Structures
1.
Amino acid sequence: MKGRKNVPDDEFARYFWSRVVRTVGCWLWLGAGSRYGTISRHGKTRLVHRVAYELATGINVPTGAIVGHHCDRPLCVNPDHLFSGSQADNIRDCVRKGRHFIQIHPECVPSGEENGRHKLTASDVRQIRVRHAHGESYRGLAREYGVGHTSVRCAVLRQTWRNIA
């Protein structure tokens, strides 16, 4: 609402909701914005799904918190489809739905010795697997190779280093 200063809250809410098409499921924003809708008020541009959540619940979403979509439609402003939380909550929601980048494109994630943070080599992993099969403990092997026992367990169980025979 450019050029309009200090519009009363009820008038702003009426204006806001007049820019929304309400369907049986998602309520879609028809105003400004491309991927995510935006609206300006008091010289500040805000994401419309945050505004919709605040108008519907009466709760001001704190800086640093997010408003996410259960429906995964960026232009949806249906309060029943929105949730407030942390970025970690948003990532968990994304992973639960199978939409996380790593789940969609695992080939883009460096693994094994291509990962710049690796401590083990392919040769180390082969030796660890053989030695564990002969009874050596995760903790003992971890101490020897300078890694955590979880790293050894994951390598032995092929949760990591899957490409190593």
Note: Residues 41 and 113 are 51 Å apart (CA to CA).
2.
Amino acid sequence: MTARYGGDANFAPSTSTGVAVNISPENSVTTASIFSVTTNGVPFPLTTASYGSFIYPRADVAGVSQHGVPTGYVYFYDNGNQFSGVNVLNSEGNTALPNGYSYFPAGPHSLTAAYTGDASFHPSTSAPATFTVTAASTQLALTAPQGAAQGGAVTLTATLTSTAFAGQISANYPTGSVTFMIGNTPLGSATPSGSNLDSHGITSVATFYVSSLPIGTNAITAQYSGDTNYSASSASQVSVSIDADFGIAPANISVSATQGGSASNTLTITGQTGYNSTINFSSVSCTGLPLLSSCSFSPVSVTGSGTTIVSVQTKAATSAALLGSPFHSSWRSLGLVFAGVFLLTFRRRYRSAGVFCVFAVTLALGMSGCGGGSSGGGGGGSPGTPKGSYMVTVTATTADKVVSHTASFSLVVQ
């Protein structure tokens, strides 16, 4: 360093000889802290959080003298293990993970921040900032079909939800397993698979297939085992009705009827061991019927094994109305001839064109009215049920709507 005198009216300027001054870097102090934010985005100090919560690590660096602003980089460590990349100090000497960090595992944590130093400030490491992450709570819901036939595959679906990672762009989904049980007897287990992340949190689904449920009403439950980061949970029970199965078969693969007649076929219902359900039949049990036909059953219900007769009634063709008959057409033609002769005679006697026109129009309207009245009274005919071959299918469903089968036969309308 040198000193320079600028001089005055009596003394000339001068410069001192240089004096060496060595400036060594100042010691720095780094402080680590942990924050979270409210739903309104207001930060608050954090000591405990559930897994998947938004956690905001921050480091503040200052010189011991409180003069100057350190520059450079900070690294964060959790329980001695580095978990962040380079974090650059801003103009106020602090830094934080801009998007927070939600992947701290459940358990106790000790966060430290290490400052790398710069030309004016020595490196420093913060004292630990401690906090605890608890396992995220879960909710388990079980769904199953109302029922199935004995030996049929039943799909059990357990949906696991949690508020963890709510509103974030990625998540660590639960591991562990879901055990499905009938009473106190395990049926088997399935691993939940992550399927959705939204503003409410995560959703994982475990699916299990079982075909060994006994006949009757089965109370099914499910339990999630939990893992290091997600707590265990249980689902409310659901009931699954298992019915003994049955078969249905027609006595004839083809029946025939003339137009306007009916055709019948016997349907035999054969139940397996333990089957005693009731099947109710109605007109809606038939599909594939031709136009202008209907079906009926006798008896209309069968309990256990038995038979019912299905009858298909067709409609005959009907003749056209009187308006379309040759007899009516002849009278109409004769009327027109009579009207023409009358008009010629009338015109010879009454030369007035005006009177003639009025009379002609009146007569024409009268004839039209007669024709229209006859037409309205007669109506049209019907071609009846179309002739041809049709595949008729009868659906048999148990009264509890658990088991359903079909039987088909050909209907020939001649």
Note: The first strand starts at residue 4 and ends at 5.
3.
Amino acid sequence: MDAGNPPKFGVPRTLMLTKTRQNPFHLYRNHDVAPGGQRFLIYTLSDDSPRPAIEVVLNWQSALKR
């Protein structure tokens, strides 16, 4: 890039597909780039990891009266 000339950008392309943990609050990044920009560290989910269970308790107020 020469001084005074705008940078030239190529067409964006996908580098990799990953399964990452959703981060709705953006409190942390799930990736980082190594110095030099040649490697990535990505926090991914494993296909064999157990999914957390959700337990729904109905009529829980009656249990408090006992």
Note: The chain has a mean pLDDT of 81.
4.
Amino acid sequence: MAPGLTGERRAVLEGIVLGEDQDLSTGLRTAFRVSGLYHLLAVSGQNVIFVAACVLGLAWLMRVPRWIGELGALAGIASYVLAVGAQLSVIRAGIAGALGSIAWLSARQRDRWHFLLVGALVLLAWSPYNLLDAGFQLSFAAVVAIFVAVPLAKDWFAGYPLPPGLPEVLAVSLACGVATAPILWLEFGRIPVYSVPANALAAPVVAPLLGLSFAAAVAAPVSTGFAALIAAGNGWLAAYLVWCAHLIAGLPGASVSSAPAAIGLLLLCAAGAGKLHLSRQGR
């Protein structure tokens, strides 16, 4: 995944691809938290979707039947979950991804709420104490926000002259930021203020970073030199994310920790959410 890379670049790649942040320095870990980019270091549905999409894409290029591609996607998802380990977010995403392939193989309708609820039931059946885990709460709160609030936010941002793709990035960041802010305050006593612009800056490189990481992993058994070349290019994307984290974390008032400020920010978020809902109703 990262042959030849060391230091922060390797640590960031390990965090984003495998959810392992133990090699990050304390300062960099704090910068990711304060900037609102720490969620990138937790393996999420985006990673699982990328794995499944790559397998299906390869199956299409090789002109094999779709059902073989879906079986390959199931195997890829299972392998990735085993490689990452028992992280609640990746198990949830893995269950949802696997159910998507199973639904296609069994000619059943796909329902994202069904996939989400099944993931929650499996995790809670495994251990009811997962309900009290911050990772469980943040993961499911963010996904529900994507389902419910992102369409509202996208409509609101669509009224502004923004580059293509940016309204969706801003909508996801805003919806997830509002939904997870109370949990962050209760669990960690701190809320990032500039998470929306931080994620807008980081979003363009996250998917390429994942793609290059998986490409390096595939190339490594065949050609270590070629894999190292891919990883060297990917290291620049990791360095850019480090720059984004430090830039946003260094801004004045990048996070709030005092109770009055946190309550005020949560009320402001609630007012913004109400405004988005009213604007949607008005249309």
Note: The first strand starts at residue 191 and ends at 192.
